[in-house]
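Quick question: what would this complex look like in 3D?
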Amino acid sequence: MGLSADNNERAIFATKFGAVATTVGSAVGLGNIWRFPYEAGIHGGGAFMICYLAFVFMIGIPLLCAEFCIGRGTRSNIFGAYRKLRPDRNWHFAGYIGILASILILSFYSVVAGWTIEYCLSSLFGQLDFSDTQTGHGQFVNLTTGWRPVIWTFVFLMCNFIILIGGVTKGIERASNILMPLFFILLAAFCINSFTLPGFKEGVTFLFKPDFSKISPSVLLGALGQAFFSLSLGLGCMMTYASYFNKDNRLGKTAVTTAVLDSSVAILAGIVIFPAVFSFGISPEAGPTLVFEVLPYIFSRFPGGAAWSTLFFLLLFLASLTSTVSMSEISITYFCEEKRWSRKKATVVSSAIGAVGGLLCALSFGPLNHLTIYGMTFFDMFDYLSSNICLPIGGMICSIFTGWLINKRFVKDELTDNGKHRFRLLSLLLFFLRWICPAAIFLIFLNSIGII
Ligand code: PHE
């Protein structure tokens, strides 16, 4: 983050562009490129897509506004924020859900980010052979089973640690300001390439044509979880980032920009992946391994494929780093501001916890794959619990809190910068925060446990 200290000892983003870029940097990551296609694949494509987009706009944008208002208005971490606004009640307990979610996510996220490092280096040294589906699959299995992924998970966590502790966040922000648009352009180029694939029509139909009969409780819950995960919502991450925003940041605009850019990247990724899935005869239901089995085929069709592949995985690795930095910030600010630890101690402890979780998740594809609860490995369990349970609950609390418990005036002042500009949709926003968001989340929960 391009943070600079102000008089209140609390840092703020140096520029408005930096603030928006870092917020988008948190949102855009493996959630868009890896998780979205695999979730869409297992949940029937078009049916999932329509629910996901509906949730981004109906629940995601209002909640982004809510987290931004609370964060910037109180300039605190999630615990401090809830406590400052309602000292009389234990609302700050939502912070524990946020911390739990951030640790669970960091654990499995680092494993997937570790795969990107492995793929990046293998492409660089010309070791990836994806001449046919069997070899491609075999290579992926080789890379992800055994102890090897543990090393890459730790390498990734180490990079995350260095950024967090070394104060080189400025560098990462500057780099990502250039690299993220480049990533977008690269993705768009691969997207154009998809048009030339034999499975283009089938892939695009799968992704965009909703078959409403496929909308089931698990599709709804999956799409809700994906919307929260992709927008980094429900765990106080956006709240923490907003606490570093300047007063002149127009929160409503920032919320819409973040949601639109984030879902565009996910859709682009879908257009890159699904035509290839159908062209190369891979099952769209392959799950978490889908993208890593498909992407190398796409690259191998390009002249200089290894170079493209190296660049792509390098950019994906950087996009993952800007996301893990933001999720680590939740527990670090908690330890620093609530427990009065030094930043160094807080970073060491959070990273160590992430490393233990990362170890369990990294081994889920190999030595620990027989250890399952309800048929889920540690990796699957951490992903499911955080995205589908913790984040929506955190979001529901935030929405009820903003809609019902804090002063309307406070929300209005934040959104309009104390009346300096207009925010015409305030009543609509409050209506969504009071009724639509909590009710929708609640009903989806009831539906998924079979009550309705
Ligand atoms: N939104 C990030 C992504 O899509 C993941 C993330 C989740 C980051 C929660 C921070 C907090 O990759």
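Answer marked as accepted. Residues 4-8 have pLDDT under 50 and may be disordered.
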